[in-house]
């Protein structure tokens, strides 16, 4: 029997990077901050919250996807794992900052963060 790889767990949270309050997405599991695009390394599969690492996931790049819009690529500051996540720039509630996503696609990253 095949196990489901996606769990809908759409809770609000406080961003570990910028401290802003993030509201639930309303249709999927929101796992990154729409204001700074950072997240926490808490999932093994989307929405399962089963990863014990808990490190901060820094957005390092983004790529356009013809079916999914944009994919944000992040690196865990604690363990170094690379994670991919669909952007929510078209969300009705707190859409992702499209300007930051575009900067990530051209390799500029977040100008508020010093590497």
Please explain how this structure is put together.
The protein has 115 residues and is mainly beta. It is built from 1 helix and 6 strands; from the N terminus they run ββββββα. The strands form 2 sheets. The chain has a 4-stranded antiparallel β-sheet with strand order 3-4-5-6, with helices on one face. β5 and β6 form a beta hairpin. The C terminus is likely disordered.
What keyword list fits this structure?
115 residues, disordered C terminus, four-stranded antiparallel beta sheet, 25% strand, globular, two-stranded antiparallel sheet, mainly beta
Give a short summary of the structure.
The protein has one helix at residues 98-105; strands spanning 13-14, 21-22, 39-40, 56-65, 69-76, 82-86. With 115 residues, the chain is mainly beta.
Q: Can you tell me the overall shape? A: globular
Mean pLDDT: 85
Order of helices and strands: EEEEEEH
Cα-to-Cα separation, first versus last residue: 44 Å
Count of extended strands: 6
Main-sheet strand order equals 3-4-5-6
Beta-strand percentage? 25-35%
Measured as a percent range, the helix fraction is: under 10%
Number of helices: 1
Q: Whole-number radius of gyration? A: 13 Å
Main sheet record: 4 strands, antiparallel
Low-confidence segments, given as residue ranges, are: 110-115
User: What structural class should be given to the helix and strand makeup?
Assistant: mainly beta
Task: Please render the helix and strand layout as text.
Elements: E1 13-14, E2 21-22, E3 39-40, E4 56-65, E5 69-76, E6 82-86, H1 98-105
Antiparallel strand pairs: 1-2, 3-4, 4-5, 5-6
